[in-house]
Every structure is written in C-alpha cells, then in structure tokens.
Design a protein that fits this description.
single chain; alpha+beta; Multidrug-efflux Transporter 1 Regulator Bmrr, Chain A; nine-stranded antiparallel beta sheet; about 30% strand; GyrI-like_CCH_Lin2189-like; GyrI-like small molecule binding domain-containing protein; Reg_factor_effector_dom_sf; GyrI-like
Length: about 210
C-alpha cells in the first residue's frame, strides 16, 4: 500500500492541451508521446462482436489500473474517454463511401505514464478473477508518438463526420503544405449510450508531415 495521503486526482484531459479542439476550425498541433491501453479489431463498430468485446475488456482493466495506482502508488487519476485509431485499405471508406465493414481499428484508453507493463499485468490478474472481459488477454500497453497533427472538434452524429474528414484530407492538409502520415484518430468526449447523436462531441485528429 502507498504511504501517506493520496495526491489530488490528475485529469489528463485538462493537463494535455491536445485534448481540446475547436468546432469548425482545423488546428495544427504537436501531440506528445503518450501511453495507452490498446486492443485491435476489424469491422463495423455498430455490429462487429469484436468491437463490443474490446470495449468490455478495455474499461474493466482501465478501472482496475486506476484503483491499483490510487491504493498502491498513492496517485489517483480520472479514467480517460474511449479513443480509436481507424484505417482501411481504401481511405475513402471514411469520407465519401463510409463503408464500415471495411474498417480496421485500434481502441485506446489513455493511461498515465507512471504506470508500467508490470502494473498492467497486476491489474489484468484482478480483472481475470472477476471475469466478464472476453478480450482481456489481447489488451496491451502501447506508446503512441503521433507528433504533428491536424485536429478539429466534430459535434453531431458519427456518420456526419464524412464531409469534415473530406475537407481535412483534401483541402486543409494540402493547402498547408502537409501530407497525411498516420492513422485517423478519434477521441470520444461524449458517451454515445447517454448522449443524443446531435450532441456528441468527438475530436478528429490526423497525423501529418510537412511536404518540404
């Protein structure tokens, strides 16, 4: 157990400036190297059983890790929102086509950098004893170094993202002397189970590089 009182709870959404974005505007930002719980999958997130199983495995582990950090390390923090990396052999699947059956994805939950793979394994054992996390063994700790990115805040249904992404990919990025490099990244600031579709808030992020 940790010695002494637990420090104030850390909220990484408030500490990391790249976890805010502006609606109706594309901003070029520098994203630091960050650590995530991660699990991969393929297919339509609305219908693929692997997607539901991934979420049902990520969050029990995320909360077990938070409890471990608070009780054993004396460092409490707010569990971060769900995030996803999305890609496809044909990137038009995200813009004009929106063919979700062709999507590949990695679901993410941001984790404080003071937590190690050893801490994750200890938390995994706790979750395994309780059961109910079908893809628990597939969740890994991953460092992601996105660097230079363009991002914006999308407000509304996920299926209305297409025109925003089309403008980002084909208008803003080339106009700024940039090119797409990494995987499309979404940060879900609202809970789709409890929020009306028109009020959902999602940060859309795209890693880029300068062309010159």
């Amino acid at each position: 157990m940790a010695d002494g009182p637990v420090a104030d709870k850390v909220d990484l959404k408030k500490e990391l400036s790249t976890y805010t974005a502006r609606r109706g505007r594309f901003d070029v930002v520098e994203v630091p190297r960050l650590t995530y719980l991660a699990v991969d999958g393929h297919g339509d997130p609305n219908t693929a059983p692997a997607y539901t199983a991934a979420v049902s495995s990520l969050y029990p582990l995320a909360y077990a890790l938070k409890f471990l950090s608070k009780t054993q390390l004396g460092r409490d923090y707010t569990v971060m929102p769900l995030e996803g990396l999305w890609w496809s052999a044909d990137m038009e699947s995200f813009t004009s086509a929106r063919d979700k059956s062709r999507w590949d994805w990695t679901l993410l939950v941001l984790t404080p950098d003071w937590l190690t793979a050893e801490h994750v394994e200890t938390a995994r054992e706790t979750v395994a004893r309780k059961g109910g996390a079908p893809r628990l063994d597939e969740v890994r700790l991953e460092r992601l170094d996105e660097g230079l990115c363009v991002q914006t805040l999308h407000v509304g249904p996920y299926d209305a993202e297409g025109p925003v992404l089309d403008a980002l990919h084909h208008e803003f990025v080339p106009a700024q002397g940039l090119r797409l490099t990494g995987k499309h990244h979404e940060i879900y600031l609202g809970d789709a189970r409890r929020t009306a579709p028109e009020r959902l808030r999602t940060i859309l992020r795209q890693p880029v590089a300068r062309t010159s």
